[in-house]
Amino acid sequence: MTAVLPQFIDPTAGAVALQVLALGGVLLVLTLAPHCAWAGDASAARARLSRSRRRLAAVGADSGTALIGLRVALAVSGPRG
Q1: Cβ of 20: how many Cβ atoms within 10 Å?
Q2: Distance CA 67, CA 31 (A)
Q3: CB under 8 Å to 24, separation ≥6 — which residues?
Q4: 8-54 pLDDT, tens per residue?
Q5: pTM surpassing 0.70?
Q6: What are phi and psi of 4, to 5 degrees?
Q7: 3-state helix, strand, coil in the chain (%, to 5)
């Protein structure tokens, strides 16, 4: 934010602090809204999946397998030259 926001501040328009607060507020709303949506969706999915212990165990096993696969891929890929 500190790298991008200053280019949108116009000192000749007055009240620089107010401009920073307004643009920061817009940024907050634009980033908070999708994160809240993701959290709500994840909560709903968790509620649906947790109704069955077997399904929840399968999701956990799939996640663990994916993480192990990623670690193996990272280990064998070697350094980039």
Answers
A1: 15
A2: 27
A3: 1, 5
A4: 888 888 898 998 899 889 989 999 999 999 999 999 988 888 898 89
A5: no
A6: -100, -40
A7: 80, 0, 20
